[in-house]
Structure prediction request, 148 residues.
Amino acid sequence: EVITEAGGGKILKGIIARENLTGDTSYKWYAENLKGYIPNADAVAALKKNSSAIQLVVFMGTWCDDSKNIVPKFYSLLGAAGFPESRVSLIGVDRSKKTISHLTEAFNIINVPTIMVLKDGKEAGRVVEYGKYGLFDKELAEIINSLK
Prediction:
């Protein structure tokens, strides 16, 4: 679902393909927010090692500054690790943090972005916004490396 805001901004609600963000001039921030990012080496290694064992579910807002900053870096990290995008679900929320099929309520999503790590269909951990260190990729590596 595309919600057009006053001023021409577009909010994507529901399942989003990365191409929805990279191929639309409304989201110029995507390319701009990749500049200078170097993926965390531990996160790259953890994603490589576990690429067939985990799935990632990411809730974001195309209107949210934290999402605009983190999501492009998240995809850069996945690329560096060779992590298959087919194992990632990107879900857009509106300004009230609602999405299709009550997914935000089902997963107890309060802030965006939220990156959830799933193993065997169960949540193993999540990074909310920048995480506890202010570095989403460092915390993501910790969660993945703690998996049995």
